[in-house]
Design a protein that fits this description.
With 479 residues, the chain is α/β, with parallel strands linked by helices. The chain has 3 domains: 223 residues, FAD/NAD(P)-binding domain (3-Layer(bba) Sandwich), CATH 3.50.50.60; 110 residues, 3-Layer(bba) Sandwich (FAD/NAD(P)-binding domain); 118 residues, 2-Layer Sandwich (Enolase-like, domain 1), CATH 3.30.390.30. It has 13 helices and 21 strands. It has a 5-stranded mixed β-barrel with strand order 1-2-3-4-5. α1 links the parallel β1 and β2. It is globular. The protein starts with a strand and ends in a 15-residue tail after the last helix. The structure holds flavin-adenine dinucleotide and adenosine monophosphate. Flavin-adenine dinucleotide binds next to α1, β2, α2, α3 and β3.
Length: 479
């Protein structure tokens, strides 16, 4: 097998496999090195996202949502269900089957595109030389004109709560529980904590979320975050803000968690504890001393806007570099780097990265929040539309939430779109496209949307920016 390539990609998560496939599509002789082994010790492609992230979490979120719909809401629409039961092992087995199919699919796509795969770990040396160690031993040197590092991230651990096999688990453990814990603690009310807390709360766990910050989802628009907090609490998630976890102890087959809040020191006892306090870039054993690749002060690989590292011809993309830790952000960076290597002028528009929290309702946004614009002293106008006024939301018995469009006061250009509603992970794409094309709120208002759809609520929110929404009663309308 050849040891010299045009491009070697390290890591086959979403950032890496997109980079590898695109490079190969563009005629570059491309290799991809991946070290992931699944539970049965088999090599697995797709990284965190496919194996223990986006996909398995959405499988469990969608399944548990269907359970809640059947248990609590079917009777409202004239459907009677008897004998409804949760079978956690079957649920986990289905999730694992989805993961297996997808990870095998990625292996197949790499192969079909002519990417040479190496299963084992890579270490980067000077002059774009890579020391490759295969699973089971055996080292060889591979060389490339261009290296793309896409080694991703791993969960952050906190000293007060070290991960144990049985009681204190990270997101990976929380995706593989074999039964519903009676009482479940979650540290961190970030995206992962809320999603995993929602899954197990829906399936019957009493869930307490301990969050150090006083503010809920500070990166989301404050109006949306406030309503989302209300809805999640209504669903039974006991979200406690301003609560810092300081210690833990395993006692009588339970986890006793010590924490402090504004009233002082307290403790809570759980059957399981999920630590979901964020993720950190993964560069363990990756960079030899002579690699020329530098890290920033937070441990991310230092890159410029075009994802070039400090070493000529070496790039880094995805979670291992600055920016939001999101699969789609890494995918676009991977594609940008592959296309630039092939001589194209591709850029990533970091102002248009959508964010989604897959709770119910889903919380989705793109662009600036009102609080960011206020802080920057920008003049803006807002149009909102409540889902309760949407015919389609009513027809589908799912009317919680709202859509909010923020536009520049002077130019009407859309600056941000914020959604709390069912299927907003899909609806937000319409806002991303509008913003990517530099749309004004008026442009969206002049666009025809199919009726009846949830998308019409985005249309109405855009019309509401200039006071012309049709389905909102009692609003003072501008001429
Ligand atoms: P990764 O997916 O982490 O892949 C890196 C790969 O590199 C791994 O396969 C690893 O084995 C390999 N590797 C590392 N070092 C080496 C080496 N030295 N040699 C060879 N191979 C190496 N994001 C979303 O956008 N949407 C979601 O809904 C979402 N949900 C999530 C839910 C959970 C529970 C978690 C944990 C994450 C979620 N994320 C989500 C985040 C998403 O998974 C990451 O942003 C994404 O996987 C990052 O992609 P990546 O390619 O940069 O890195
Ligand atoms: P994210 O980075 O979005 O995944 O969110 C992780 C959350 O965990 C952040 O909101 C942190 O404030 C929170 N967090 C981190 N450490 C602690 C701690 N010791 N106790 C409670 N919450 C924490």
């Amino acid at each position: 097998m050849s040891t010299k390539f045009d491009v070697i990609v390290i890591g086959a998560g979403p950032a890496g496999y997109h980079a590898a496939i695109r490079a190969a599509q563009l005629g570059l002789n491309t290799a991809c090195i991946e070290k992931w082994l699944d539970d049965s010790g088999e090599p697995a492609y797709g990284g965190t996202c496919l194996n223990v992230g986006c996909i398995p979490s959405k499988a469990l979120l969608d399944t548990s949502h269907k359970f809640i719909e059947a248990r609590d809401h079917f009777s409202e629409i004239g459907l009677t269900v008897t004998g409804l039961k949760v079978d956690v092992p079957a649920m986990i087995a289905k999730k694992s089957e989805v993961v297996r199919n997808l990870t095998r699919g990625i292996a197949g796509l790499l192969k079909a595109n002519g990417v040479t795969t190496f299963e084992g770990s890579a270490r980067v040396h000077a002059s774009r030389s890579i020391e490759f160690t295969a699973h089971g031993g055996g080292t060889q040197t591979l060389n490339a004109d261009h290296i793309i590092i896409a080694t991703g991230s791993v969960p952050v651990e906190i000293p007060p709560c070290p991960i144990t096999a049985d009681y204190i688990i990270d997101s990976t453990g929380a995706l593989a529980l074999e039964s519903v814990p009676k009482r479940l603690g979650v540290i961190g009310a970030g995206v992962i904590g809320l999603e995993l807390g929602s899954v197990w709360a829906r399936l019957g766990a009493e869930v307490v979320v301990l969050e150090a910050l006083d503010e809920f989802l500070p990166m989301a628009d404050a109006t949306i975050a406030k309503e989302a907090l209300k809805q999640l609490r209504k669903q039974g998630l006991d979200i406690r803000l301003g609560t810092r976890v300081t210690g833990s102890e395993i006692k009588k087959k339970k986890v006793v968690v010590a924490y402090s809040d504004s009233d002082g020191d307290k403790s809570e006892t759980f059957d399981k504890l999920i630590v979901a306090v964020g993720r950190k870039p993964y560069t363990q054993d990756l960079l030899a001393a002579d690699s020329g690749v530098n890290l920033d002060e937070r441990g991310f690989i230092y890159v410029n806007d075009l994802c070039s590292t400090d070493a000529p011809g070496v790039y880094a993309v995805g979670d291992v570099v600055r920016g939001p830790m999101l699969a789609h952000k890494g995918m676009e960076e991977g594609i940008m780097v592959a296309e630039r290597i092939a001589g194209q002028k591709t850029l990533v528009n970091y102002d248009c990265v959508p964010s989604v929290v897959y709770t119910h309702p889903e919380i989705s946004w793109v662009g600036k929040t009102e609080q960011e614009l206020k802080a920057a002293g920008e003049s803006y106008k807002v149009g909102s539309f409540p889902m309760v006024a949407s015919g389609r939301a009513m027809a589908s018995n799912d009317t919680v939430g709202m859509i909010k469009v923020i536009a520049d006061d002077a130019t009407d250009r859309i600056l941000g779109v914020h959604m709390l509603c069912a299927h907003s992970s899909e609806l937000i794409a319409e806002a991303v496209i509008a913003m990517e094309f530099g749309s004004s709120a008026e442009d969206l208002g002049l666009t025809m949307f199919a009726h009846p759809t949830l998308s019409e609520s985005l249309h109405e929110a855009a019309l509401a920016v200039s006071g012309h929404a049709i389905h909102v009663a009692g609003r003072k309308r501008k001429k």
